[in-house]
Amino acid sequence: MQRCVTKRKIGMALAVVLAGAGAIWVGANWGIEQTDDAQLQSHLYQVSSRIPGTVDKVLVDAHDPVQPGQPLVLLDSGDQRMQVLRAEADLISAFSQADAAQVTVGADRSDASAGESQARGDQLDARAEVVRTAADLKRYQSLHRQGAATQQQVDLAESQYQQSLGRLSHSRGSQATARSRQARIQVDASKAAAARAGVLQAQAALATAKLQLSYTTVRAAAAAVVGQRQVEAGQGVQPSQGLLILVGRDVWVEANVKETQVSPMRMGNRADLQLDGVPGVVFHGHVTSLSPASGARFALPPPITPPAISPRWCNG
Fold it and tell me: Which of 21, 31, 149, 266 could hold 143 in an S-S bridge, CB 3.0 to 4.6 Å?
């Protein structure tokens, strides 16, 4: 009988210990969700060339740290340098043509202005000469009828009058020539504008050539570590062809949890992490975001949905 009482006491004590341990475990893990389906993630940068070419030198190797803007791969730049030199020569030629066209426009304007002024003055002089010689001719003709002037004097006055008419006609022609020079100025001004446009085109071509030259140096886009090297010196490459894979230095943990674990989770919740590669060390962090859909939704092959089952009732 005493043995039975002792066993009963031992069982009750064990139950109390188990209940206490369970209460302690529940208290320590209440509201805590756990998962072992998690992976470290980081940004991956696939480095490629913008232009086709031949690799001249690879400046980094696998696992090397790199900084933003650091040269990683050098392509043969001979063709691009020649294009830059050719574009620079074209730009110098375009500047020369533009300057010459501008000088021509200025000279034509000066000549046209001087010619127009000269033609206007000559026409005024010619008109005055016509008036004078016409008056002389009329006077000599009147004197000749009165016997006070000879026929030779009348003929001379007639000749001078005709010459003044000729000079007047010539002055009108000079004025028309001056007006035609004004029209030529417009043509030369159009040529000067085209020459200035040629300068802009040459500048754009030079900028494009320099940009193509800059593409022969492939640079890092961010601070990272070379994860994989996929190119060697002497290899021909094409645009968008992978040369290196860089792994970003910012890392985070992507954890997969069950749907029943999601409801109490909020952004900003504390998260404790343990890595298999660093046993015994606990890393502390927080929840930065929650996925708007499940991983199956983002998978390339969609999950197989079982066929719908419609209930059917049978009469016994």
Answer: 149
Give CA–CA dist 77/214, Å, rounded: 9
Q: Are residues 68 and 109 in the same domain?
A: no
Global confidence as pTM = 0.59
Residue 137 CB neighbour total at 10 angstroms: 20
Q: In 10 A of CB 147, how many CB atoms?
A: 7
pLDDT digits (tens, 9 = 90+) for 2-48: 455 565 656 566 665 565 555 554 444 545 778 877 888 888 999 99
In this structure, are residues 241 and 48 in contact, taking their beta carbons and an 8 Å threshold?
yes
3-state secondary structure of 277: coil
**Residue 277 phi, psi (nearest 5):** -75, -15
Instruction: Let me know whether 138 and 52 are in one domain.
Output: no
Q: Give the count of domains, the chain.
A: 2
Query: Residue 102 falls within a domain, yes or no?
Result: yes
**Residue 112 CA: distances (Å) to CA of 100, 109, 139, 183, 316:** 18, 5, 40, 10, 118
Q: Which of 114, 252, 107 is nearest to 189 (CA)?
A: 107
Residue 230 sits in which domain range? 33-76+221-297
